[in-house]
């Protein structure tokens, strides 16, 4: 028997400009060109989702996922297009909805939006917003975004922007309801919020995957207690696949170590022993052969019950040829095997 919702696999990137293992810097222009090719290959190979994250720093090429996704929409045919994430706390929900509705129209109904607080705080001072109202901004603007999706015209009042009175928000998307996911950072409060609202969630798994099992259960329980049907769960992880386990790890280690050193300095220097532990069968890092990647996705599915997996690709200055090969293997070897094992089409 096939499941009603097939397991989906996709890729995403923040467009980071991590220096290569050799020390050379990537330019934003070349990185964006690379990303467009990743999207075309992912679409042609049969992956389900393509995502872009938002940062406002010199070492990232993407500050507006919706703008780059519009370019992707013009060069792809079927793959779904999502932000991973939109930093909603420092954005205007009216403008965000308009832009993603436009993306939906340009892509023929393929747009999604993932709302989150963001892993970095640079957007708050950049847009003149106080950090001491961090939580208030997110709650207030998520409420408005969801109301805009549900009603048009919309009447709303909150604490972080001017009220709206019978205001029309245009254009409207092709889809009846623009899909809005929440990025959950692994706290009980964020899981409860998502469940109470009945919104699908992403867990960004960088530590022990089993640590997220209680949050997945809390999410489902919160939805039930609110009288809602729980949405889908997605998982995001760092990723590289090659034909053999040893080849994948030998290729990826220097790049991934460089990425961790630049973007997660509190983690410290990532040596090869730590890298091998992270990429072990119960570790959070997906780096290995297709069989290892398949087994880990299926194991995490048993733990979390998720139905979407997004792989963060191109990390640490990995070459374009290696990144494209990894994307193709994910589509041609991993995705069909996972769907077959789970009885979905």
Give a verbal description of the structure.
This protein is an alpha/beta fold and 345 residues long. The chain has one domain: Luciferase-like domain (TIM Barrel), CATH 3.20.20. Helices cover 44% and strands 16% of the residues. The protein contains eleven helices and twelve strands. It has helices at residues 28-45, 65-75, 93-107, 123-126, 134-150, 188-197, 213-225, 245-263, 272-278, 290-304, 320-342, and strands spanning 8-13, 49-52, 80-83, 86-87, 111-116, 154-156, 164-167, 180-184, 201-204, 233-241, 286-288, 308-312. It has an eight-stranded parallel barrel with strand order 1-2-3-5-8-9-10-12, surrounded by eight helices. β2, α2 and β3 (80-83) form a beta-alpha-beta unit. The longest helix is centred in the C-terminal third of the chain and has 23 residues, at 320-342. It is globular. The protein starts with 7 loop residues before the first strand and ends with a helix. The mean pLDDT is 94.
Strand arrangement, major sheet: 1-2-3-5-8-9-10-12
Which secondary-structure class do the elements indicate? alpha/beta
CATH topology (fold) name: TIM Barrel
Distance between the ends? 10 Å
Helix segment tally: 11
CATH 2nd-level architecture: Alpha-Beta Barrel
Strand content: 15-25%
Order of helices and strands: EHEHEEHEHHEEEHEHEHHEHEH
CATH first level: Alpha Beta
- How many DSSP-defined strands? 12
Note the main sheet.
Answer: 8 strands, parallel, barrel
CATH superfamily: Luciferase-like domain
How many discrete domains?
A: 1
Mean pLDDT: 94
Question: In angstroms, what is the radius of gyration?
Answer: 20 Å
Shape: globular
